[in-house]
Amino acid sequence: MKENSKKWPAVILALVFILALYYFLVEPSTLNQAQQLETVKAKVTEVLDISENKEIADQTQGGITSTQVSFKAKVGKEEVLAYQQVANLIPNEKLAEKGDWVVLVNIESQGQKNWVMASYHRIGYVTIVAVALALILIILGLKKGLNSLIALVLTVAMIFFVFIPMIIQGASIYFWTLVTAFYSIFITIYLITGWSDKSLVTILGCVFGTLVAAGLSYGLGSFLHLTGGYDDATLALHRMASTMPIDLRALIFAGITIGALGAVMDVAMDISSSLYEIRLHAKVGFKELYKSGISIGRDLMGTMTNTLVLAYIGGSISSVLIRVVSSSSMIILFNTELIIVDLLQALLGSIALVLTMPLTAFFAAALYSREDL
């Protein structure tokens, strides 16, 4: 197959797909159920006062100290008076200083505006990092870097504008997880490689690996009697069940499936591209290509499995630490649902990763060994 270099129609179609799903399926009123408060970005211009008081006497922890900082802040052209409340329960909490960018919330009382600092304005710095990533991708990756960036943006848009809203509305998490995963696979691979034998092999390998992770996750969720309520966030979702009916066990399925997706795509693309280059520069048959694919897969296996496992460990260090400290025995610790879910995410993702390798090698060998390549 010849690569199709005209990818912009596919980008437009992918974007239209997201917009159509959002327009026809998503109820905007269900997305934000919290009380809407006036929120603004402001810059601290002057710190007026810092006061400390003892609010709660706690003999075991020496009391909870609350520090209040009153300051002036500029909101647009207007200067307002605002407050920051800091409890000593929060470590490393920085008191507001002149020049800081903050987020203020209006807690209105009897018609009077009362501005309270909700957080520091951090997204600006994160945006700079995101722009740096985009520039690095484009400068080093050229057209493929740009296409990778577009694919990433479309995948994130699919997650936040379709996948998450559909979950909030009580739709099937299993169905929308697979829709999101397959959308990401098709748009990412197509934008990077175009439509070719290489992209077809990669897509087949990715779909297989994703289905392996999804199938194992679905089966073990029931077998291990998982509830899905394994941390504060999921328990908070459970308490909101009357207004937001979410299947917590299905969230485990979604986490494992989507979590494994990136690594599966990476491995499938590596094997597919490597074997494609081998075939372009040497006339080799099915058997030789398949053996080469398995050999490449074995080299990838160790590093990619480590990448997946370490990513999950790194993402849950705080939760694991609290369980280790509070657990009365190792038996209880390693049967805690939080630990089991973390282990499943790493193990099932790794299994999907490893099984993707031989199948991708098989598809690549079958397609690339043709005489008319």
User: How many domains make up the 3D coordinates?
Assistant: 2
For the largest sheet, list the strands in their spatial order.
1-2-3-5-4
Cα separation of the termini: 8 Å
Helix content: 55-70%
Summarize the main sheet.
Answer: 5 strands, mixed, barrel
Counting H and I runs of at least 4 residues, what is the number of helices? 10
The count of strands amounts to 5
What does this structure look like?
The chain is of the alpha+beta class. It has 2 domains: 8-26 and 143-368, no CATH class; 39-106, no CATH class. Helix content is 62%, strand content 14%. Helix 1 (8-25) packs across helix 2 (123-168), helix 3 runs antiparallel to helix 4 (197-223) and helix 7 runs antiparallel to helix 10. The protein is globular and about 80 Å long. The model has no long low-confidence stretch (mean pLDDT 85).
Chart the SSEs and their pairings.
Elements: H1 8-25, E1 39-56, E2 64-75, E3 78-87, E4 101-106, E5 115-120, H2 123-168, H3 173-193, H4 197-223, H5 232-239, H6 248-281, H7 286-315, H8 317-326, H9 330-333, H10 337-368
Parallel strand pairs: 3-5
Antiparallel strand pairs: 1-2, 1-4, 2-3, 4-5
Helix pairs in contact: 1-2, 2-3, 3-4, 3-6, 4-6, 4-10, 6-7, 6-10, 7-10
